[in-house]
Amino acid sequence: MFAARSASGSASRDGFDLIPPVVGQPTSPPPYMPYPVPSHVKLTDVEMEVFRPSEAEFGICRISIDRQRRKNAFRPETVEDLIVAFRMAEDDPQIGCIILQGKGKDFCAGGDQSVRGEGGYSHSNSEVPPRLKVLDLHVQMKRCPKPIMAVVKGYAVGGGHILHMVCDITLCDNTAVFGQTGPRMGSFDAGYGCSRMARLVGQKKARELWFLAKFYHAKEAADMGLVNKVVERGASGWGVDYEAIKWARRMMGNSPSALACLKAALNADEDGAAGMMQLAGNATRLYYLTDEGKEGREAFLAKRPPYWRKIPSSKL
Ligand SMILES: CC(C)(COP(=O)(O)OP(=O)(O)OC[C@H]1O[C@@H](n2cnc3c(N)ncnc32)[C@H](O)[C@@H]1OP(=O)(O)O)[C@@H](O)C(=O)NCCC(=O)NCCSC(=O)CCC(=O)c1ccccc1C(=O)O
């Protein structure tokens, strides 16, 4: 039961107190288990894990880029693994929230420059000129109906910085460093790398980030609106991982369909007709559940005219 509302109101009475306490202590690694990846799926550059806080809750799927020798820079195979991993997490009805992180000390140092050839990134199966397909991954992440949260430690630069910006929420610890390097490296992202950034930090600041290609520490990034919360790393280094579990449980305690529709709505203006289509798809999905939607299907299958007037909701 809720306590009686005080005259002045209270920010702590927002329902969070109804969620059971956080599991585990930040002195040991968070209790993720290997995700049950089917045997026909081979992930070489990405690790998938799962943590379900309790039987009553959805699970959190944690997707980690694992190329630590190159500061988790992504090559074409990494992007393909991420596309597969996000698809699995999105389609899994047991999963309520997805976390994207880098394994080890860094989030991601962008596109792997050592496999970048004359026309793009070399890959045996790629078209000519080769490309990273990372823009396809960005679109997939934005279309995913589940919240995606970036957990950033160390460098999130170049294409790695864009990956965190495309996520719905970003948490980081005080080791995090953010920035674009493209203009120094002979690269740029004129897609979400520009439009999303300008929406997050404003046009002037976005131009500063791209034109100067500077790096920014966690607090500066948070002050600019790139980051939701900076968490003290703590002695163990797991501080932000436990905070991420807390945020995920908080989101997963809310209505999944409400979150999916809100995500689509918040993306809609940036994504033009494709964004409206995503939002509209949710409306059609909900409509299928109405008596009116069912009557249309039943009438067709019974080879009779639909009888709309028997349904009160047809007055709309
Ligand atoms: C991140 C650094 C500042 C870290 O510096 P430091 O701590 O000193 O570590 P290093 O010794 O430099 O790094 C250790 C080790 O990792 C290798 N490495 C780091 N980053 C990369 C990388 N991006 N590619 C390949 N290898 C990398 C480094 O060489 C070291 O290896 P050794 O063998 O020990 O020498 C610093 O590392 C740094 O500045 N890194 C580069 C950051 C960067 O510029 N990233 C790429 C930007 S371009 C991009 O991301 C592509 C964007 C993209 O994909 C795209 C987007 C939109 C449309 C199209 C595309 C597209 O298809 O291109």
From TrEMBL:
Write down the InterPro entries for this protein, in alphabetical order.
ClpP/crotonase-like_dom_sf, DHNA-CoA_synthase_MenB, Enoyl-CoA_hydra/iso, Enoyl-CoA_hydra_C
What is the reaction catalyzed? 2-succinylbenzoyl-CoA + H(+) = 1,4-dihydroxy-2-naphthoyl-CoA + H2O
Q: Mind telling me which Pfam families this protein's record contains?
A: ECH_1 (PF00378)
Molecular-function GO terms, alphabetical: 1,4-dihydroxy-2-naphthoyl-CoA synthase activity
Which UniProt keywords are present, listed alphabetically? Lyase
CDD domains referenced in this protein's UniProt entry, alphabetically: crotonase-like
- Keyword Lyase annotated: yes
Q: Which Gene3D superfamilies match?
A: 2-enoyl-CoA Hydratase, Chain A, domain 1 (3.90.226.10), Lyase 2-enoyl-coa Hydratase, Chain A, domain 2 (1.10.12.10)
Name of protein = Naphthoate synthase
